[in-house]
Design goal:
The protein contains five helices and six strands. With 141 residues, the chain is of the alpha+beta class. The radius of gyration is 15 Å and the shape is flat.
Length: 141
Amino acid sequence: MNKRTMEDGYTIFETGSKSASVFLIIEGNVGIYLPTNYSRTPDFILGENDILGEMGVINNSLRSGKAICIGAVTAMNISKIEFDNKLENCDVFIRGLLGVLVSRIDNLNKELAKKNNQKTVSACFTDEEKKGEVVEEERLK
């Protein structure tokens, strides 16, 4: 786990990149851009004490959106390996509950995309592209 300060406009992760870290915003704001958003206005703005990047790390999926710093941002990040180690040492009930919640959210996202005639992020990439590595921890050091 490490603490990092990033500048305004810094892209924390891109849509479709490998999910390698979870982030906790300590200070500042991060804009989240969904794959269908080509504007300069984020779909969501996350701030202090918000977490981002958790879904992809938990369910081993590609990033479902782009995250860009709005002003300076200080965040803690934990790698997928560290997260998995913490989860492995967690109570089996909590681990199961987390799995069920993530599965339900993932299914809802797929249903919403289907309803809006949109592809999910994972459907936009070939199997070969899904295997590609964008190692965020290395880029963030």
